Amino acid sequence: MKPKVTMIAWNQNDNYVVTAVNNHLLKVWNSCTGQLLHDLVGHADEVFVLETHPFDSRIMLSAGHDGNIFIWDITKGTKTKHYFNMIEGQGHGAVFDCKFSPDGQHFACTDSHGHLLIFGFGCSRPYEKIPDQMFFHTDYRPLIRDSNNYVLDEQTQQAPHLMPPPFLVDVDGNPHPTKYQRLVPGRENCADEHLIPQLGYVATSDGEVVEQVIGQQTVDQDEQGLEPSILDDMIRQLQLQQDQRTGADQESASSGPQNGEGTPRRG
Q1: Segment (H or E) for 116
Q2: Beta 26-30 vs 36-40: how paired, if at all?
Q3: Residue spans with biased composition (Polar residues) (predicted)?
Q4: 52: how many CB neighbours lie within 10 A of its CB?
């Protein structure tokens, strides 16, 4: 096997450089002299996560596709803590990313099965207030590109960042109760009737029809005389204003200066 470096990280005070190699070893180097100080042994697959402790220059976290999470003392070349991400009935879950909290007392990891793992000191009670499965109903909705190559939501034909805040659903797409919907930024102060999503049937790419959360209101509802969503009205107004500004800029650019002075604005 030809050794290849898969990840590199400096420690907190820049005295050490840690490299992850595709032979599953981590190597600790002196950043000034380039001298190899330690080989860190423990991983059984490639490592793509190296995270530096925010203020302790001795501590480095590593995680990889083997499901192992290590906390190392890189000055001594020793393991401080180890966690193996075993998922019941499915084997281990590859760890894709890790980050320390600003105070260095916690770190969070995400794995290949969509789990968020939170480690640290203190009590787990605050995390018990939220459901085990949390997804946005827009997570797997298809996107398209318009004539300007801008990304649009296929169903609503709107730019994703201009759409109303999404709903929280479980892994099967079933919406959570209204008390959880208020956890979504932008829905904190919504009335209960605006926190109940509308369900509909959507055809998947392989032709299967499944029930999914569609959104707050649809165009068909507006045509039937039902009360429109406040959020959707705001989105439409923002889109209209943006279209008007874009049209004005393009008109100004197309006219341009006629006497050769200056440069026309780009639309």
Answers
A1: strand 116-120
A2: antiparallel
A3: 239-261
A4: 20
Last residue of a domain, one of 125, 153, 171: 125
Domain of 18, in residue numbers = 3-125
Q: How far apart are CA 114 and CA 98, in angstroms?
A: 13
Amino acid, single-letter form, for residue 34: G
CB atoms within 10 A of CB 258: 6
Q: Is residue 139 part of a domain?
A: yes
Task: Render pLDDT for 176-231 as a digit per residue (tens, 0 to 9).
Answer: 888 888 888 888 777 777 777 766 666 666 666 655 666 654 333 344 344 445 55
Q: Which residue has the tokens 């590593």?
A: 62
